[in-house]
Design brief:
mainly beta
Length: about 110
């Protein structure tokens, strides 16, 4: 089993930056793939960015060039968000695949005002 805990959300103005963190309860490199998702009010959960155990990354087109996914050796994954837009407002969730199980954090709210 594993637990994931997000932090770093908040209220910012358009154009500003935020960094989200996702702390894992075990070695983060055990997860085959980890990712950030977001869910805006009234919308389906959307995959934002992924990082594989080998370090390959991928992003949804709407955040390419603005968001960066990364991880460190302290069992934490990050999502650096720059030039935030109002449409980035959502609850952001981290997830990780361990064996056949996908684990989720509790989510952190990001609100971008105009």
């Amino acid at each position: 089993q594993a637990q994931l805990a997000e932090s770093g959300g908040g209220l910012v103005q358009a154009g500003e930056s935020l960094r989200l963190s996702c702390k894992a309860s075990q070695n983060i490199f055990n997860f085959k793939v980890m990712g950030w998702y977001r869910q805006a009010p009234g919308k389906q959960r959307e995959l934002v960015a992924t990082i594989t155990a080998g370090g390959s990354t991928d992003y949804v087109d709407s955040v390419k060039g603005r968001f960066t996914i990364s991880r460190d050796r302290a069992n934490t994954m990050y999502l650096q968000m720059r030039n935030l837009k109002v449409e980035d407002t959502a609850v952001y969730y981290c997830s990780g695949g361990l064996g056949s199980v996908v684990y989720w954090g509790q989510g952190t709210q990001v609100t971008v005002s105009s």
